[in-house]
TrEMBL record:
Domain Glycosyl hydrolase family 13 catalytic: 17-426
Protein family (similarity comment): Belongs to the glycosyl hydrolase 13 family.
Coiled-coil spans in chain: none
InterPro entries: GH, GH13_cat_dom, Glyco_hydro_b, O16G_dom_2
Key word rRNA-binding present: no
Species whose genome carries this gene: Mycolicibacterium arenosum
Superkingdom of the organism of origin: Bacteria
Entry keyword annotation includes Isomerase: yes
UniProtKB keywords: Isomerase
Name of the featured protein: Alpha-glucosidase
CDD domains: AmyAc_SI_OligoGlu_DGase
Listed Pfam families: Alpha-amylase
Classification via Gene3D superfamilies: Glycosidases, Golgi alpha-mannosidase II, Oligo-1,6-glucosidase, Domain 2
Lineage, uppermost ranks: Bacteria, Bacillati, Actinomycetota, Actinomycetes, Mycobacteriales
Length: 566
């Protein structure tokens, strides 16, 4: 949080997320590491991003790839040492970039000493650090389901109580109502800031205050357990906890910091509160509405395909809701989402590059801070998953087992996984066309996408019309043009199922962003004011540098940004 500058630096910044396990492997064990990241920092400097967000690197049993932390003040030997971390931070800072840590404090690993102590007896001084409850009628205390399937409660035989885990049973939820827990989190944050980091991405941070009394969620016929966002999220004390944490950690600290809270189920109304600078809670939040548009009621693996109008309206709603208070984060991808070019674009080789660039143009033209996930800047695609054994992620594996147990329809389960599995985002970075895509000299922990032979960084960096070059150009525009930070967002043609069109406006200047989100050519009439305006950026070679008539003829996946003085 940096209320001292107006506008704050992070409103013109672009953030790049690194998933260390899959980024670059320096020691050849098949898993990416900190030295590997150091070796690739020049790629990120060339892209021009301002901030790196590192997915968790702390010691962890790695049940959820590090989102299950057993020590908040060290580095997992898989990734390196604290000395490697310090070297990385220095190299990042030397290149004028910042680094933010992933802070996972809704839950810990069950192997964290706090939980080991907590479960040791009902009288343990750490008992209240987690959420323990007695049985209800001989069963779980309520009907909450874990986001990773099954009940959200695990029975502890030794002390004869259940503990709450909204994620895996090896990820017990911390009890934020207990003041020593909040103090411990503040101390961890201060410890990393003292080491020199520039902020935090805070994992599922709207889950830290649950609905008082932990009531049952409304039942869903045929389901014993319900994944109950309304009960898990945005509970009565969440704003107090965040304001208290921010004040304690950043209140007397000078410097340029950034915080972003991941918030499944958050509404725009809540997000206005979380990101209102006057309230001192968070700089931005990650909302999930636009990445939920292709799900059916059965959850993310109930994949229904894209309705572009629904997607547009989801993002536009957030542009409008945070227009005068608060701030949006903008993202297509992260380590939990399938690859955007396969999901909302077109990964057929004939349209792959144009659609990747068109989607990038749409997102980076909006108001907010863009986040780029590793490989997105190359247009990396989903992996051609075929069998259950192809998947490593516990969410995918559990889902497959659940579906097969319930209906026996393995083909349907596999189709859902292929489209939506988190492993799509987690296959290794494609650095070159050689063995393992240049990711590792060993055997990668997840296979490299076979398309690395032609889809890789070496092919693209330095090539003028590559996906990488387009991301670099968009990032440069974000730095150079205050209108991309400040301009008023106005959607146009919202009900058109193929065109995505909007303007950004300041009193002295206006931008028009148009994208044809499909293979078929489309024409579009522009108002006379726009005739003769300059093409600021296009995604295809040969687009005329000015708009010469009232009709724009757009080929498949054509995307353009026009600019004019007003
Ligand atoms: C967040 C993370 C995800 C993780 C979960 C539990 O959603 O992004 O990867 O599995 O929290 O920590």
């Amino acid at each position: 949080m940096t209320p001292q500058h107006d506008p704050p630096w992070w409103q013109s910044a672009v953030v790049y997320q690194i998933y260390p396990r899959s980024f670059a492997d320096a020691d050849g064990d098949g898993i990416g590491d900190l030295r590997g990241i150091i070796g690739r920092l020049d790629h990120l400097a060339a892209l021009g991003v301002d901030v790196l967000w590192l997915s968790p690197i702390y010691p962890s049993p790695q049940v959820d790839n590090g989102y299950d932390i057993s020590d908040y003040r060290d580095v997992d030997p898989l990734f390196g040492t604290l000395a490697d971390f310090d070297a990385l931070l220095a190299e990042v800072h030397d290149r004028g970039m910042k680094l933010v840590m992933d802070l996972v404090v809704n839950h810990t690993s069950d192997e964290h000493p706090w939980f080991v102590e907590s479960r040791s007896s009902r009288d343990s001084p750490k008992r209240d650090w987690y959420i323990w409850r007695d049985t209800r009628d001989g069963a779980e205390p309520n009907n909450w389901g874990s986001l990773f399937s099954g009940s959200a409660w695990e029975w502890d035989e030794a002390t004869e109580q259940y503990y709450l885990h909204l994620f895996d049973r090896k990820q017990p939820d911390l009890n934020w109502e207990h003041p020593p827990v909040r103090k411990a989190v503040q101390d961890i944050m201060s410890w990393w800031l003292d080491r020199g980091v520039d902020g935090f991405r805070m994992d599922v941070i709207n889950f830290i205050s649950k609905t008082s009394g932990l009531p049952d969620a409304p039942a869903i016929p045929g389901r014993r357990f319900v994944v109950a966002f309304a009960e898990f999220a945005d509970g009565p004390r969440v704003h107090d906890y965040l304001a208290e944490t921010t004040l304690a950690v950043f209140g007397n600290r000078a410097g340029d910091f950034m915080t972003v809270g991941e918030m499944p189920g958050v509404t725009p109304e809540q997000a206005r509160l979380y990101t209102d600078p006057e309230r001192g809670e968070l700089d931005m939040v990650f909302q999930f509405e636009h990445v939920s548009v292709d799900h059916g009621a059965g959850g993310k693996f109930d994949y229904r395909g894209l309705d572009l109008v629904v997607l547009k309206k989801a993002l536009h709603r957030w542009q409008a809701a945070l227009a005068d208070t608060g701030w949006n984060s903008l993202y297509w991808n992260n380590h939990d989402q399938p690859r955007v070019v396969s999901r909302f674009g077109d990964d057929d080789p004939a349209y792959w590059a144009a659609s990747a660039k068109a989607l990038a143009t749409i997102l980076h033209g909006m108001r907010g801070t863009p986040f780029v996930y590793q490989g997105e800047e190359l247009g990396m695609t989903n992996y051609p998953f075929r069998t259950p054994q192809d998947h490593a992620d516990l969410e995918a594996v559990n889902h497959y087992d659940d579906v097969v147990a319930a209906s026996g329809d393995a083909q349907a389960a596999l189709a859902g996984l292929a489209a939506m599995s988190r492993d799509n985002a987690r296959t290794p970075m494609q650095w070159d066309g050689g063995p393992n895509g240049g990711f590792s000299a060993g055997t990668p922990w997840l296979p490299v996408n076979p398309n690395h032979t032609w889809l890789n960084a070496e092919e693209q960096v330095g090539t003028t019309d590559s996906v990488f070059a387009h991301y670099r150009d968009l990032i440069r525009l974000r730095h150079d043009l205050p209108i991309l930070r400040d301009g008023v967002f106005t959607p146009l043609l919202e009900d058109d199922p193929q065109l995505w069109v909007y303007t950004r406006t300041l009193p002295e200047r206006e931008l028009l962003v148009v994208a044809n989100c499909g293979r078929e050519p489309r024409s579009m009439e522009i108002c006379p004011d726009w005739i003769g305006s300059a093409l600021l950026l296009g995604n295809l070679l040969g687009t005329p540098t000015t708009s010469t008539s009232a009709i724009l003829d757009l080929v498949g996946w054509d995307a353009r940004i026009y600019s004019r003085d007003s």
